[in-house]
């Protein structure tokens, strides 16, 4: 049981964070700080809309979650998949090893950069929160 402590603890922390965002609506002003990059430059970062996306996701509105921040919504699903893999491997006494080649990390960075650039251009306004 001791080896399950870390994945279960991480799930508890993520559940608490999502529970808070699910009950304290980020669409109501005054509850959360404004993105510093957006405030200083007017540029939407890859995380802009992430809290609104999390709120919509946790309340079951997947369409709104995707429109608030599609990358974050995909990230929630990926987190869940990796967490299940982590818990399964911890249950079996095996370490979680996800070895991605550098090309994958460069690809993830390229997708985030492309997402950021496109959502800040007029034709990519559908990706803006």
Q: What are its keywords?
A:
129 residues; single chain; mainly alpha; 6 helices
Could you write a compact summary of the structure shown?
63% of the residues lie in helices and 0% in strands. By secondary structure, it is mostly helical.
Task: Give an overview in words.
The longest helix is centred in the middle third of the chain and has 22 residues, at 70-91. It contains six helices and no strands. The protein is an all-alpha fold and 129 residues long. The chain is globular and about 50 Å long. The protein has helices spanning 5-23, 36-41, 50-58, 62-68, 70-91, 102-119. The N and C termini lie far apart (42 Å). The model has no long low-confidence stretch (mean pLDDT 90).
**SS summary, helix count:** 6
- Percent in strands: under 5%
For the termini, the CA-CA separation is 42 Å
Q: Kindly state the mean pLDDT as a whole number?
A: 90
């Amino acid at each position: 049981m001791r080896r399950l402590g870390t994945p279960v603890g991480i799930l508890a922390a993520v559940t608490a964070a999502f529970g808070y965002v699910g009950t304290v609506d980020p669409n109501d002003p005054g509850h959360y700080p404004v993105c510093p990059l957006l405030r200083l430059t007017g540029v939407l970062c890859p995380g802009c809309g992430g809290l609104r996306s999390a709120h919509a996701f946790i309340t079951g509105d997947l369409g709104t979650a995707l429109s608030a921040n599609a990358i974050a919504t995909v990230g929630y699903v990926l987190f869940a998949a990796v967490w299940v893999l982590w818990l399964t491997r911890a249950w079996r006494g095996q370490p979680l090893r996800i070895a991605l080649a550098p090309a994958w990390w460069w690809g993830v960075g390229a997708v985030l950069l492309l997402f950021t650039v496109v959502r800040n251009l007029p034709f990519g306004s559908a990706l803006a929160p």
